[in-house]
Amino acid sequence: MDPRFIRAALAVLLAAAAVQAPAQDFPNRAITMVMPYAPGGPGDTITRVFAGAMQKHLGQQIVVDNTAGASGSIGTAKVARAKPDGYTLLMIHVSHATNLAMYKSLPYHPVDDFEPIGRATSGPMVIVTRNEFPARNLGEFVAYVKANAAKVSLAHAGVGSASHLCGLMMMNALNVKFNEIPYKGTGPALTDLMGGQVDILCDQTSGTVPSVKSGKIKAYASAGKTRLPQLPEVPAISEAGVEGFDINISFGLYAPKGTPKSVLDPLTSALQKSVGDVEVRQRLEAMGISAVSAELARPEALRSHLKNEIDTLGGLLVKAGVKAN
């Protein structure tokens, strides 16, 4: 055989081995998990919980990088542009789906430019009000807001936020239009609700349940078909005969498009082990959030969930004519 052919074939094999080597011994250095929202919020806490748990299973440190701005799209774009080697990941919630409807020109596509790793959490929503709100129960709440919608104020954490989506869905389901009061985050909105400056907020249990339990605000219903384990005495909105109002906020983990399966598999495995970790589940439950099952912590489950949110919640924003400023 021609020695030149042998040398050329050997060079090709060595090059292929060099390309595969990083995947085969993944991970061999620290991983960055981008959280595209500001430090201190529920998303930041969730990301740090999973970063700490997954690094134990992967044997490498996971560093959380808060790259906030533009409803999470700045940090998300950063991950989309990253090298697809598994060392830059994205932890994000519903804004990954809704930004497609809100922004005319996103620098990425949420489906086409990412590899799903798996879902991480499931966070129900709850309708809360200032303590002086006149309704005594869920039935009276529904009747009151329908009769007085024009003078009811609805707080939310900003355009495209989970609380904004929940508010839009509530108004659709009740066929009413409240006075929307946007805030720069859930914290300021909740503060004004506790102070009686606004009437209603529909948001994740992670922010609202502690204030309900301490008596600072009132809870009328969970935004769905089942009661909340954190507030078992509070009925589900469906118990009042309200249909089409079921929203749950889930965080999911993604890698850049083109990340090889040999890298994605250990990441999914680490995520599945983490959602079953007793300490992880306890920390999340203390926030009013649940870790998903190992079955949902898979790429297929996250891909399906994302496409459903693009259709339903993205469609909700399109119907309402909502665009980012």
Strand percent estimate: 15-25%
**Shape field:** globular
The number of strands is: 12
Number of helices: 11
The assigned structural class equals: alpha/beta
The N- to C-terminal Cα distance equals 68 Å
What does this structure look like?
This protein is α/β, with parallel strands linked by helices and 325 residues long. The protein is built from eleven helices and twelve strands. Strands 5, 6, 7, 8, 9, 10 and 12 form a seven-stranded mixed sheet that branches. Helix 2 (42-58) links the parallel strand 1 (31-35) and strand 2. Helix 2 crosses helix 9. It is globular. Mean pLDDT is 90; it is low at 3-22.
In short:
With 325 residues, the protein is α/β, with parallel strands linked by helices.
Keyword list:
five-stranded mixed sheet; 325 residues; disordered N terminus; alpha/beta; single chain; seven-stranded mixed sheet; globular
Set down the secondary structure blueprint.
Blueprint: H1 3-24, E1 31-35, H2 42-58, E2 62-66, H3 73-81, E3 88-92, H4 95-102, E4 114-119, E5 121-129, H5 138-147, E6 153-156, H6 162-174, E7 179-182, H7 186-194, E8 200-204, H8 205-213, E9 218-222, E10 248-249, E11 252-256, H9 261-275, H10 278-286, E12 290-291, H11 299-320
Parallel strand pairs: 1-2, 1-3, 6-7, 6-8
Antiparallel strand pairs: 3-11, 4-11, 5-8, 5-9, 5-10, 5-12
